[in-house]
Amino acid sequence: MRDFSYFRAASTEEASRATLDAGAMLLAGGTTLLDLAKCGVTEPDTLVDITHLAGLGDMTVDANGATIGALAKMGEVADHPGVKAAFPAVAQSLSLAASAQLRNMATIGGNLLQRTRCSYFREPGVFPACNKRNPGSGCSAIGGVTRNHAVLGTSRACIAVNPGDLAVALVAFDAYVEMGRRRVAIEDFYMLPGETPDWETVLKKGEIITGIAIPASPAAKNSTYLKVRDRQSYEFAAASAAVGIEFEADGKTVRDIRVALGGVATRPWRARAVEQSLIGTVLNVEAVEKASRLSVEGAVSHGGNRYKIELAPRVVARAILTMGGLA
Amino acid sequence: MTIMETRKHGDAADGMVGGRFSRLDGKLKTTGGATYALEQPVKNLVHAVLVQSTIAAGRVVAVDAGKAKAAPGVLSVFTPEDDLGLLVASDWFGNRPDNQPFHPLPREVSFNGQAIAAVVAETLEQATEAAKLVKVSYEETQPVTGLDDPNAGEGRLVDMLSVGWGDAEAAYAAADIRIEAEYRTPREYHVPIEPHGLTVKWEGDFLTVWEPSQWTHGMARTYAEWFNIPADNVRIVSPFIGGGFGSKAMGYTYSAVAAAAARKLGRPVKLAVTRPQTFTAYGGRAATRQTIRIGATKDGVLQAIVHRGASETSVLADFPEQTGAATPLLYAVPNLSTQHRLVPVNTVTPGALRAPGKNPSAFGLESAIEELSYAIGMDPLELRLRNYADHDYQSGKPWSTRQLREALTVGAEVFGWSKRSHEPRSMRDGRQLVGWGIGCGTFPVLKAASEALIRILGDGSVEVVSGAIDMGQGTYTILAQTAAEVLGVPAEQVDVKLGDSSLPGATVAGGSMLAGAITGAVHKAATAARDELIGLALNDSNSPFRDTGANTLVIADGRISVPRGEGPSLTLAELMSAIGRDRIETQRNTLPEGANGPEDHKRSWTTMANIEGPTAGDLSMHSWCAHFVEVKVDEDFGTVRVSRVVSAFDCGRIYNPKLAESQWRGGIIMGIGQALLEEGLIDERFGRVINNNMGDYLVPTNADIPHIQVISVGIPDHDASVLGGKGVGEVGIVGVAPAIANAVFHATGKRVRDLPITLEKLI
Question: Hey, what CATH class is A5-49 in?
Fold first, then answer.
């Protein structure tokens, strides 16, 4: 039996101090923690329980945007009328994720830190080589079954896909991750694997995600999250897109457009080249399809995931055309 | 003395045979009141956890169990070094080598994920953690990882599976229209909601095993032979099973390990196979490939079918997934040849998974038939009806009953098939392409003897007792209905006890044959009980019927009375009280009189040697079905969603339409998973299935399942079974995958010949 200690933190500060210890991990919804502990990927010595901390689950949505506490449940945020009105893509990304049972348990802070679904990462007893788990040990996925691996942002050290949906929508709308005294743009929160795939975010030891802030914008208000997968429910995305568009007063010229991709990259993937090529234009099917292909610039296939390079631009295009009234 | 007319299905709303009666065990299961094998409360229990190999082929050189043994709570670590003292048990047909040792934790590794060690500790957590500390060193050899491995070869021809008549090659070569294509199915898994495992307890030389079992008597024999103890010393207890689908009909190596550990340690042992371990602790459906050539005239009359199939098996044992099983049966064809090869690879030995053989066979044939329909420009329904088989061409025998024509025509009518336009890509719903497809299915009627005990108790209640099992298909319920009908009591008054090898013998719940077998035994035993009760009522000196002059009596609605006359009318309890009996007990089996001794019983209840195939008599007996499927395809994304299913079935007389429909729907849902989602992903470098969990091995969710309309077009078939039913459990999955593949072709113009039809195959 693997013993671990349990510590119920009295405050965020206390939790922060407790997680300075090597082997300490936060316990919030516990859905990923329990899963990874069963796989043998996560073996905490101490669980620092923050589930009861006051204020960390609060949500407010006003004209400036939304602030969502780290302990808010995925399901609560998905169903929040203010979020649904001002950030439809965010609400949809959550309601299309996981299962109802998981959404009722899992927290927003934990969701941002969910780990990859890479099969080689998840079976340490069978595949000792994994740079994410064990830096320098190699990557078992490269050369293996890669149907659900990343085509964007990969390195020779790691091709694991970031599985999130919420983070994709947040990246599209320039959200911030709040970590007590510090906040960072969510796009800067996630790191490319490079040679250090074990470093997934800029979160430092002892830092705790306290919430997220999403600035209001016309593009966020007019947004959608499109998730494509073989199974209708309870499956990670083969490819997904968060898209929001603000039109000029003429109702057709694009003033602002946000595009981010999920299910295809090692981190939530903002597709600025697509955005730039469409700003100032009037959308038409051909132009959107052409622009959407820019979303996979630089994509690299590893065999089984080749289809994602074809699929992702189609998902992006459909989402843009939907918001542009053309699909 | 008493004659019972069986009723046609659906006309008994009272819960008698044919009645639409809810599952008697349903409430127990949905409220958590049913105790499953791994929940069995046993005192002084310890826990075993398996260690599986991480290479696909080679040899265990050494097992370093030092750290594991030193870990808290650990009692023992079993490795290939330990002789567990077991003997090889019989195969399914009762054949057994003499005194051959059985090593369930072998030194030779023949597949990735093979059990090679087990850790036993006081708690599950201790055993789980210690199992991670077991260090195994191997001497690896090059594995053969699947059918496509360059070293796999074309396999070995299985002669007994070769079927042929006429000159298929010549007729094919001479045919006006010829099509040829290869179809493939991947490894598929049962993934029942209740994972596998067992709780075992020894008391001296007596062994009790709580283990989900599709065959309590067969498995009891296996344990007895492993441990070289009398068969009566083993008791398998399995009252509730959370789904089996073919995977719970035998003891596996981990079962032997748990029982051996319990004997060595002198403590009861629980061994729960983890979900990832279930992918290699026993075999799923083998991967298959088959090439089908069909020759036909320009107007669609079949001239020849040439079928060449292969399935993988393990290097340890042969399990052919018979790709030619349905090929000879569905259509009238004057020339046919099928052959099947077995290709040994480094996998766990494959096993029976819902409609073994028939399922991949129908995927090939029913896809090929629609390919032919496009080659000649004929509606696929018309093509099927044009080539309707009026008898069994393989055996030359007449069908007992075959309502497949009715299934096709009624199904088509309800589905609205006549509104279909034949051209691919010609039907749309907004952006989505719409496709319609048909797939026919068949499953043989297998017959076996079984035994049952009926008790009429002093309070007028009735007990039905048998070692047969209920894995969700409804055995409890239909046996209550069977006894209730014969004994004239409400079904609620009947208590059914099942799932225990110490109870009267029953055949395996497999091959869709248990319902037919065990209702026959219950019917016979209940009839005997009824006769005995009426005999006592007429003759017992204290019976109020003694002086009525009646020569028989009627039991209905729980009361016994004189037929059509004035006279006493008593409840069964009143009669039992009057005649001073606290029970009437009759035990009957359906073995023939000349072959009804102890050896016959053993052979019938614990082996499959006495099972009769579909053409054992003068007739050819099978269940049949026709599926009509609508899919919607988003062509940009390659995503397929099944939007409508209408399926018509000929399973003979239906004992309980509600439960039969539920089984059919379950088979169809499983077929949707097979068609669109399910595939063991094998890493060819290691021969390992890497999506060995339910997050990555996808089965359909509720959101994937549309309205499924099922229709019975069957008629009672008393050649197939005593009560007139044919097999229900497996035929439902047969033909679903080709119906979907055909619908996808109709929608998109793309023919996908390798399952599952995932999105990358369509974009």
Answer: alpha beta
